[in-house]
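As a warm-up, study this chain.
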Amino acid sequence: MQSPFYSGKKPKFVHVQFNDIVRDPIGVARRIYSACGLEWTRDGEAAMRAYIRESEERRENEKMGSVHFPYMLEQFALDESELRETFKEYRYQQGYA
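Now compare it with the structure written out below.
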């Protein structure tokens, strides 16, 4: 089976590292917009900046150190071994092998 990620065609996804989005969420959003051929607007950026600011304030007010999402693969009818096989090449390329 040919990898959906490295088939020689233009990728249909944008790889985003968690640390990049934490460090520069607006820069990452710009990159995603560009990759999708979407127009970047000042109003859109202002809305994103407001959301980020409000989110940071909310976390500070709630004194949340980290967020844990208790999702399980089974909830979404996903199988870990299938996901590992499907994303094997991608994980290798990203250093997660």
